[in-house]
Amino acid sequence: MKADPAVQRRLLDLAEADAELNRIEHRRRTLPELDQIGQAEGEVRAKRDELVVAQTAFSDLDREVKRLENEVEQVRARERRDRDLMAAGASAKQLEDLEHELQTLARRQGILEDEQLEVMEQREALETNVTKSREAVAVAEERLADIQSRRDEALTDLEVAETRRKVERDLITKAMPADLLALYERIRSQRGVAAGQLQGARCGACRIELDRTALTEVREAAADDVVRCEECGAIMVRTGENR
């Protein structure tokens, strides 16, 4: 195959555009934020789970406090009723029974109030845990949002760079002979890198030095001959210093 040397040199621009597009795609797949987001999402889930546990424990104790409050109120109501009965003029036997019941109610009320105080202290501690858990969730969510924002910014930058390179590539390929472009694309699909500059005796695509015989053949080829590396199959673009 033959192609004008100037056109062949444009293959280097095309190869550079393709290399940059590959680098952009690699960066897109390997953004550090992607792993960081996974870790941050796990942290958010863990903190939310801790909050649920804290809220559940608090709710359980809150119900216990309300139960004790109801029992204390029932004891107080019973005490008021007994005192009202005593004030209404009960018999001696009734008075004795009522006095005994009032003593029992007083002991019961004391036990309930002590228990109520202890549970309320526990509830207060758990309420603090709930508050701290909510704060931890908020911090974790904020960190996740920050990482996601940085990821989105990075992806936007990559998209801009990719669009610019694709435009450059399109302009290059439109000005290139169909047969040369077809050869380039076929090699690229098979080998990845389809063209490189011959640098001394080294192929710019695979970085392997040509042996003496192959190098002589390349140097003796006509300027418009399209030559390929015998090692990697890429098109070797010769510039003035390679002649």
Properties at a glance:
243 residues, CT398_CC_hairpin, four-stranded mixed β-sheet, 5 helices, Helix Hairpins, rod-shaped, mainly alpha, 2 domains
Which term fits the overall shape?
rod-shaped
| Class by SSE composition | mainly alpha
* Unreliable parts: none
Number of E-type strands? 4
- The overall pLDDT, averaged over residues, is 91
**How many domains is the backbone divided into?**
2
Tell me what portion of residues adopts beta-strand conformation.
under 5%
Which strand order spans the largest sheet, edge to edge or round the barrel? 2-1-4-3
Can I get a quick summary?
The chain is mainly alpha-helical. The chain has helices at 5-29, 32-87, 92-174, 178-191, 212-220; strands spanning 195-199, 202-203, 227-228, 235-237. The chain has two domains: 5-25 and 177-242, Orthogonal Bundle (Helix Hairpins), CATH 1.10.287.1490; 31-160, Helix Hairpins.
Describe it for me?
The chain has two domains: 5-25 and 177-242, Orthogonal Bundle (Helix Hairpins); 31-160, Orthogonal Bundle (Helix Hairpins). It has helices at residues 5-29, 32-87, 92-174, 178-191, 212-220; strands at 195-199, 202-203, 227-228, 235-237. The relative contact order is 0.15. It has a four-stranded mixed sheet with strand order 2-1-4-3. α1 (5-29) runs antiparallel to α3 (92-174) and α2 (32-87) runs antiparallel to α3 (92-174). The protein contains five helices and four strands; from the N terminus they run ααααββαββ. With 243 residues, the chain is mainly alpha-helical. Residues 14-192 form the CT398-like coiled coil hairpin domain. It holds the Pfam family Zn_ribbon_9. Residues 51-164 form a coiled coil. Residues 202-236 form the C4-type zinc ribbon domain. Keywords: Coiled coil.
